[in-house]
UniProtKB/TrEMBL annotation:
It holds the Pfam family Pro_isomerase. This is Peptidyl-prolyl cis-trans isomerase. The keyword Transmembrane helix does not apply. Its EC number is 5.2.1.8. The keyword Isomerase applies. Residues 39-201 form the PPIase cyclophilin-type domain. GO terms for molecular function: peptidyl-prolyl cis-trans isomerase activity. Residues 1-23 form the signal peptide.
Length: 207
């Protein structure tokens, strides 16, 4: 059931894609990228694996450098499963995105608690700006166990601020109308918005 919910939320909030050039510099294949994400519930530090998930990491870095994640929200939280964000503003309106990235779920990284993965629709190669933090060990999202045979690509993990992730995991949620499709409901929306105020690439001259 959770697997279907994750697919469904991407299908609802992923609207038209704006294809623009990816301006991110090439990342060193053997280097980890450290990211500081500040939210209204605290700060989370993530380590992104540019060696095993180069396209996903490059994609995330591009959005971070552009300031895309600033003032977005975690719009979908399912306790014990995941917290998804990075695509909607405070009014639950979708922000423009770059072209999708290839699914890198075959990289060997697992959807374990506190890992970070790309959110997508039922199309395996539809991931853009949205990501989710696993708040449980979700083995059924891994490539080798996924119902669709593709899985969800993990590209990093939380190395500091796990207590903040725990706070997000425990917030109260409710259904809310989808601004893009008023007749449809978005499920599991936090009652009090969880706002991402900034995402910085630590040590990045451009960030």
């Amino acid at each position: 059931m959770n697997y279907r919910a994750l697919c469904a939320t991407g299908a609802i909030v992923l609207g038209s894609v704006i294809a623009v050039a990816n301006a991110a510099d090439e990342l060193k294949a053997d280097a980890a990228v450290t990211v500081e994400m500040t939210t209204n519930l605290g700060t989370v530090v993530m380590e992104l694996d540019a060696q095993k998930a180069p396209q996903s990491v490059k994609n995330f870095v591009t959005y971070a450098r552009k300031g895309h994640y600033n003032d977005t929200v975690f719009h979908r939280v399912i306790e014990g499963f995941m917290a998804q964000g990075g695509g909607l503003d405070k009014f639950l309106k979708e922000k423009p995105t770059l072209a999708p990235v290839p699914n890198e779920a075959a990289n060997g990284l697992k959807n374990a608690k506190y890992t970070v993965a790309m959110a997508r629709t039922s199309d395996p190669n539809s991931a853009t700006s949205q990501f989710f933090i696993n708040t449980g060990d979700n083995h059924f999202l891994n490539r080798d166990e996924a119902e669709d045979g593709y899985g969800y690509a993990v590209f990093g993990r939380v190395v500091k601020g796990q207590e903040v992730v725990d706070k997000i995991n425990e917030v109260a949620t409710q259904p809310q109308p989808n601004p893009a499709f008023p007749a449809m409901l978005m499920r599991d929306v936090p009652v009090e918005p969880i706002v991402i105020t900034s995402v910085k690439i630590l040590g990045d001259k451009e960030g």
